[in-house]
Amino acid sequence: MPDQGIFDICVIGGGINGCGIARDAVGRGYSVVLAEMNDFASGTSSGATKLIHGGLRYLEHYEFRLVREALMEREVLWAMAPHIIWPLRFVLPFHKGGIRPAWLIRLGLFLYDHLGGRKLLPATKTLDMRRDPAAKPLKPLFSKAFEYSDGWVDDARMVVLNARDAADRGAEILSRSRVISARRENGLWTVGVQNTTTGALRTITARMLVNAAGPWVDQVLSNAFGKNKVHNVRLVQGSHIVVRKKFSDPRAYFFQNPDNRIIFAIPYENDFTLIGTTDRDYTDDPKNVKISAEEIDYLCSAASEYFAEPVRPEDIVWTYSAVRPLYDDGASMAQEATRDYVLKLDPSGGDAPLLNVFGGKLTTYRRLAEHALEKIGEAIGFKGRSWTAGSSLPGGDFPPTGYAAEVAKLRKAYAFLEDRHAARLVRAYGTRAAKLLGDSGSSEGLGRHFGGTLYEREVRWLIDQEWASRAEDVLWRRTKQGLYLSAEEAAGLEDYMAGATAH
Ligand SMILES: Cc1cc2nc3c(=O)[nH]c(=O)nc-3n(C[C@H](O)[C@H](O)[C@H](O)COP(=O)(O)OP(=O)(O)OC[C@H]3O[C@@H](n4cnc5c(N)ncnc54)[C@H](O)[C@@H]3O)c2cc1C
Fold first, then answer.
1. How far apart are CA 482 and CA 489, in angstroms?
2. Which residues contact 404 (CB under 8 A, 6 or more apart)?
3. Does the beta carbon of 181 sit less than 6 angstroms from any atom of ligand 1?
4. Does 212 contact ligand 1 (Cβ within 6 A)?
5. 480-497 tens-digit pLDDT
């Protein structure tokens, strides 16, 4: 709780970085308020490829610090949230005359296996693609492949679980609240916040400000702070397509394209395949980002180079796009700009400090938050110690390899649940799935059925516990049930939510 109405820290932005910093800070004893102008993870943090990965291709750009930190984080994050994060094996096929020689890839994967932090994840191995089932959906182009480990994450849920945990620890977490002004007054920040649903204005006073607005970080500096000529981030668009399942193998594919780029094809939400991503400079407002016809063509034709059955635009059931807020290091090509994060304190010693967050990855958000807390400590005085490694995100308090046991437990307690419903609930809510289901003893007890495996009981939980207020929050961020609901069913949910969240 803030002392005399003054917060220690006000965080702008409810993406993974803002929510991660807010959680870490409140856990150390700072009073924290966070304002997100839209829904949590509605910016870049729900538009990722969703890998908890070292970033094999960043080795080519000599980003060893970043890759090592990210590799070490894989198992730390998996242990923190084994419901929303799990290991994934990647098949990287290659052939003679490919753009990278096999020895170079093997060297990269050797570093990948040995740079640090790998205890549970299995090591790289070589596959004989004349025999391995991974070859089945592919054209007969490859005699060999490497298979290596990384992780998968439900990105939007990782954000909201950080927000939930921060709130549980005492932070004030505001959704649909845009920071419209920020000025220094008597050594403190006076921050103007507008509720974007009701229009209501509120003034927040804080000792320190953290600008974690992702792709909007420069916009916040020029609009809310009135700074001129701000150019810190390079916006790089990345888009993904989702098609009906192209293969039943549980492994993902890593394909190297002749243009030196790579694409992934990943098993997605049981019935689908996720294919991405593109990489192109972006100059419009990040809120308008949308896949282009060229990107659709690029992803379809790149994937069709490898899959025996082509990927056609008409196979696409969903697409999403997001903008990477990369620190502008002047690299000439979008895919070469640094993926590392940069934290800048402004001014370094004076009153009412401001910390700007540039760049970052989902995988490194926890370490980014720890580094931010070092800067915050230097600026307004240290509190607490690093604590998030070894902690659990809400619902993640079970062993990393314990997912199947959690599903079996839930199935036993709620025998009426269909297998895929129980599996999904444990993936989304972990040990909190039983709290969500409460005393319901039958499907009827779950209330109105909106379509897919989405029932009123879960929607209520999302409104009460996870700040959901629109159908899209539920269908595309808290869950991916949007893939299963018809347009009519989605409209039914929208009406229900409008009634349930009316003030
Ligand atoms: C295509 C793509 C693929 C990626 N794949 C991966 C991957 O596989 N693995 C990985 O580790 N990383 C990946 N990343 C990187 C990762 O997604 C981003 O680094 C991360 O999500 C950035 O989070 P953020 O919190 O900085 O920004 P955001 O998630 O965009 O959050 C910023 C928030 O600030 C809010 N905001 C802006 N202005 C204001 C204001 N005035 N007031 C209040 N709120 C405001 C916005 O609404 C937004 O929600 C990928 C990124 C892209 C684009």
1. 10
2. none
3. no
4. yes
5. 999 999 999 999 999 999
> Phi and psi dihedrals of 193, rounded to 5?
-125, 135
- CB 43 less than 6 A from any atom of ligand 1: yes
**For residue 314, what are its two tokens?**
């008409």
Residue 10's pLDDT is 98
Indicate the pTM of the whole model.
Answer: 0.97
Whose Cα sits closest to atom 41 in ligand 1? 179
Q: What is the DSSP string of 14-81?
A: -SHHHHHHHHHHHHTT--EEEE-SSSTT-SGGGSS--EE---GGGGGGT-HHHHHHHHHHHHHHHHH-
362 lines ligand 1 (CB under 6 A): yes
Sorted by where each starts, the structural domains of the chain and their CATH numbers stand as: 6-44+157-232+339-390 (3.50.50.60), 82-152+234-334 (3.30.9.10), 403-500 (1.10.8.870)
State phi, psi for 10 to the nearest 5 degrees: -115, 125
Give tens-digit pLDDT for 353-381: 999 999 999 999 999 999 999 999 999 99
| 476 DSSP assignment | I
Quote the distance between the C-alpha of residue 245 and its chain's center.
22
Residue nearest to ligand 1 atom 4, measured at CA:
48
Instruction: State in Å: Cα 93 to ligand 1 middle.
Output: 30
Mean of the per-residue pLDDT values for the chain? 95
Strand partners, 88: 150
Ligand 1 site, residue 354, Cβ cutoff 6 A: no
